[in-house]
Amino acid sequence: MASFSFLFTPARPGTDPRPATGRWRTLLPPFRLLLAHRRLIWQLALHELRGRYAATLVGSLWAIVNPLVVILVFWFVSAYGLKITFASGPPFHLVLFCGLVPWMTFGEAVSGGTSAVLNHAYLVKKIAFPLEILPVVGVVSAVIVHGFLLAVLLSILLLSGVTITIHALQVAYFLFALVAFTIGLVWASSALNVFNRDVGQALGAVITIWFWMTPVVWPAQNLPPRLLHVIELNPVFYVVEGYRNALLYGRPLSAQWPLDLYFWAVTAVLLVLGSGVFRRLKPHFADVL
Amino acid sequence: MADTIAVRIEHLSKKYRLFSSKSHRLLEALDPRRRTYHREFWALRDVTLEIPRGTTVGILGLNGSGKSTLLQIISSVLQPSAGTVQVEGRVAALLELGAGFNPELTGRENVVLNGTIMGLPREQIRERMDSIEDFADVGEFFDQPMRTFSSGMFMRVAFATAIHVDPDVLVIDEALSVGDAKFQEKCFRRFRAFQEAGKTILFVTHDRSAVPRLCNYGVLLHQGQLVAAGDPGHIVDLYAELLTFGELRGAHSGRDARLAAVEASENTASALDSPTPAATPRATTDDVCAANPLYNRYEHRSGNRHAEIIDFVIRDGATVNPTTIRTGARLEIEMTVRFDADVEAPIVGLVFTNHEGIVIYGINTEMLKRRILSARIGDVRNYRFGIRVVMSTGNWFLDFAVAESSTELCDQRCALAHLYVLDDAAHVGLARFEADFADDSAG
Fold it and tell me: Is the whole-model pTM more than 0.80?
């Protein structure tokens, strides 16, 4: 009866036979935790979505309605206000939609993940809880909403006569890439945010600047090649372009392998840093909250 | 041999780091050169303890003695600074009301959440839901958000969940005290079932009567150190000593806990400052009641002060001013009265009350039909009552009075002494009537 839980029980100090020293020993556990607690992460993410809209009439529907409204507004502005059109290729509003959907998920995941430890204070004090999973809960609830948005996006693409190719499956890879990058980011930001709420606010401002610096609502084609290479260093742009290639252009997974390598290098560094910051600050959470 | 130990604590120490500000805390946590920005506070020092499986352990100690820290380390909420803790099996902990429960979710949803945190598979949570709902017994509130719960209801749901996740070790930090008596009784019954199932319970309490009643092992912490462990009745006595004096009068530190504890109790009587015996002449005629360890500084005093009660002594056999009195003990209660006026045929008396002021017993020399010799101004006299204690476990107060007549009080000192009585026998009520029983049909 007691043995089945062994896998789910976090390693206890003193019973852990592995030596505590060595850098790799401290890098792996957070990922193992995520895997071990996947059911808990899922449950908390659902609670979070439901909790956020608990007092509303249509409830979780707002999680979908709000981003759809944003998409519609940007589409209206770019198509009628700014009259952005291309001579060739798919219409700009489809390019816009394909970029906005992953971007909004990114924004949502960062803000949700950053405030996750604060929002789950009841799991921080006087209870043995794998705190590393909390920022991930914020990311996962954004991914759940992303599922619905993706379905809407696919419907729009199909109705607009875009042929969905086998390359659309690449979306899974780019979503995974986005999640990995975001988790690294929010591990650091959520932990710092516990100490100083300014972190969350400042990050909001950074995200806004980041949004306009990323070619989401404006086309990247017009940029001079040298500037484009700088813009390409933005990891979120890698994901946004990946979505467009997969869904709209039907292009195979990026042939520009240096860019893939670059993205994963940045993400790896961020994950190592983020989990390190989180691990170091974690013991103080209960005292600061 | 090893598998009969449920919790093994070796040389456990816990240092708290005190920071003067949040930013110092952040600086130290992230400083790449690991500079320090804190002051140290040792909440636990070198605690070594083995708890066999199936034991119910009561942990006693003054505020700040490290009880909660110990429980938090055992339940992996805190990491030890030094030493190790090994726990066999799954731990369920009730450390603070509300910990692990989302006030926005309903009772039922929180049970599922907590079951998942404890690693229980979904089907098992579903199977046990009825039983949990039944045990918590909060009626329709079970499907309401927990922020609408009273603290008692909160605790019921938390406790019901904790015992249904099949813990091998159950850790409770004073959480039970918010439950009403009926629910506490239900929990205690569950404790026994746990004990019989070979599970281990550790709990912190300030209810001294609960320790000998529920536990088969007691642990006493003082200033972060384990000062005694063993027989719960004995641990309660030592705790009472700590409560009264703020320290243990025996010399224990750094020695074997059990041995030290036994010695401490043997030394209790002799180690005490011996109050003035009745026979020896008094060095002073001032009021020295406040020097008695049983003195209650919240006493209430009245009277015309033609005579004053200036000292009292309570003896239980060889023990002077005992911190714990066993029900059934025969006490000798002595009071010293200084007469500041001539008093014709004074009357002296005693009243025992409980914390609510309910009089359980009162007696005076007039009721005893004992006439006291008249006193002259300046006389200092000792009077002695012999009384058998019949009160049950609890805190009791003793009033002393001296009067000129049945209507004119000279000095009445209500709740002058604070007594703690411990009853070893099982029964209910304020007093112990020595009951026996016969069944004539049994032949």
Answer: no
